[in-house]
Amino acid sequence: MPSTPDATTPDAPAVGATPVVRTERIGTALLITLDRPRARNAVNAAVASQLADAIDELEGDPALRAGVLTGAQGTFSAGMDLKAALAGESPEIPGRGFGGLTEAATSKPLIAAVEGWAMGGGFELALACDLIVAADDARFGLPEVKRGLLAAGGGAVRLPRRIPYHLAMELLLTGEPVSGERAGRLGIANRVVPAGQAAAVALELAELLADNAPLALAAVKRIARTADGTPEPAAFAAQRREMAALAASADVREGMAAFAERRAPVWQGK
């Protein structure tokens, strides 16, 4: 697999052609699979559009509690489809960013299940998720500087906020990939698992998250986004507003009642 910032491909379908993103409901989770294996699951306009639709499916169905994003046939994503981009296609969705995801404000937990290569924009799709499960032999890289570019789909913004500055700059300035095993040591990945197990473990995590109150999960995500780079007084003020809304919800009363009655809560999302 070439360590280019993104992939050139021979098979870039037009938007609305053969599905290139598949969704499958597994319990309360939505498994979202980038499905252009011949193109190493590179992102073109069709992938961006269909991935945005998949996120809408996740967000719009109260029965779905979390999403798992992965790639078909042992590769997460080689990044932007350069050949499609040169032909005039955009891999971005206005207001949602690269792949229809990197700038999207999602309310439900999203877990990246990374096998094989997550390069350039592929790594940035993983960074846009809340949790990352990586195969031990996966490869994460932001090689844009090798082509005179920068990781503009969130890599240069998010990575220095997720791991220590000097370690983030090593990846951003050298453009060299790291293994899934090292990604775990750096704090990029939450779980490092044997090859072929990333999606299964991510779905287990999604099931664990589904035990928790959906309103609370959404509030945690909003506060985490607000607190990132916000002065503490403003962050705490936002948190108080979220807590007030949660305190008035039926789910809080259900959570307290379930605890008192020693039973599992039945969340309503309201």
Automatic annotation (TrEMBL):
Record keywords, A-Z: Lipid metabolism, Lyase
UniProt entry tagged with the keyword ATP-binding: no
InterPro entries: ClpP/crotonase-like_dom_sf, Enoyl-CoA_hyd/isom_CS, Enoyl-CoA_hydra/iso, Enoyl-CoA_hydra_C
Entry-linked NCBIfam families: PRK08252.1
Family classification: Belongs to the enoyl-CoA hydratase/isomerase family.
Protein name: Crotonase/enoyl-CoA hydratase family protein
The organism of origin for this protein: Streptomyces sirii
